[in-house]
Amino acid sequence: MSRGLGLFSGGLDSILAALTLRRQGVEVWGVTFVTPFFGAEKARKASILLDIPIVVRDIGPVHLEMVKKPRYGYGKNMNPCIDCHAMMFRLAGEIMRERGFDFLFSGEVLGQRPMSQNLSSLRAVANASGVGEYILRPLSARLLSVTPMEENGLVDRERLFDIQGRTRRRQEELARKWGVSEYPSPGGGCLLTETGFSNRLRDLLEYSGDATVEDVELLKVGRQFRLSPLVRLVVGRNQSNNEEIKKFVRPEDYLIQAAEFPGPLGLLRGQPGDKDMEMAAALVAGYGKGRDRDEVLMAIRRDEDYRTLAVAPASREEMKNRLIV
Question: For the chain, where do the domains classified as CATH 3.40.50.620 start and end?
Fold first, then answer.
């Protein structure tokens, strides 16, 4: 029995790719990678439902370094899909060798994504991965060149598919035929494809080339502001956000909150001057209960230090102009 290790997101295409091979006797496993931009929740659920074993690996730091400087550039937003797929195949190739799998596979469909799944992009992924000769794409295999796995009889090419294009009609037909009733809707799995998050990330990387995974995780919380090249502010939207923000506090960060009543929490990071501090306090005040007051007393904490600062709450126009959206 041949053994295949697939890039497994838990989406319909990756599910069908795995089932296509399993139905012809291949032992299939999935590998799911976790980064700040996507997780393993869908893959874990599909793994249980369909009895497909998966390996889960956190590749956050190495993936972030690739995102900073992708060889093939970005898509519409901050999504370096070609570089990302190549990296995942390369890392999957290491697991393939460690665990004795015969080949790799994925649910990629020719032409489904015009920029990252056209013929030249699929070839670029294979070449850049360093394991191109081991990659099989079962859903479009009969439209692509014959692979060594097919030539050597590890899989039967006639029982693979020739699916292409953006419509998912044939995949949905296969799902019904094979009794696959639970699968997520397409898209929405990667934060790098979302405009708002991409704008936040682009701003972070422009001013902080040494940004870490923790810095990226903070982008997911609250409202984000750029006060100057050296200063960034995060303001909680609700109590849950306030609690999340506290998890990211470093000794050199400032925490800003109204001194006289509950309200949003601000985390000020960087090298703020007096004007930055006043603006940060005003922005936090602008989202609080005292937004209509002429002046609000704000509490400012840094490690063990504490002081107060009276500021006029920022106007809606000021908040809008500095908000990263």
Answer: 3-191
R_g over Cα of the chain? 24
CA distance 27 to 319: 56
Dihedral (CA of 130, 132, 135, 138) sign = positive
CA distance 170 to 216: 37
Rounded-to-integer distance, Cα 281 and Cα 279, Å: 5
150 φ, ψ to 5°? -75, -40
Ramachandran region of residue 112, left (φ > 0), alpha (ψ -120 to 50) or beta?
A: alpha
**Residue with tokens 């370096």, as numbered in its chain:** 80
**Is the CB of residue 175 less than 8 Å from the CB of residue 183?**
yes
How does pLDDT run along the chain (325 residues), one tens digit per residue?
999 999 999 999 999 999 999 999 999 999 999 999 999 999 999 999 999 999 999 999 999 999 999 999 999 999 999 999 999 999 999 999 999 999 999 999 999 887 788 999 999 999 999 999 999 999 999 999 999 999 999 999 999 999 999 899 999 999 999 999 988 887 768 999 999 999 999 999 999 999 999 999 999 999 999 999 999 999 999 999 999 999 999 999 999 999 999 999 999 999 999 999 999 999 999 999 999 999 999 999 999 999 999 999 999 999 999 999 9
Candidates 1.10.510.10, 3.40.50.620, 3.90.226.10, 3.30.1120.10; CATH matching 3-191: 3.40.50.620
Residue spans of beta strands (DSSP E) within the chain: 3-7, 27-34, 54-58, 103-105, 135-136, 223-228, 231-235, 254-258, 266-270, 296-302, 305-311
Number of C-alpha atoms within 13 angstroms, CB side, residue 307? 8
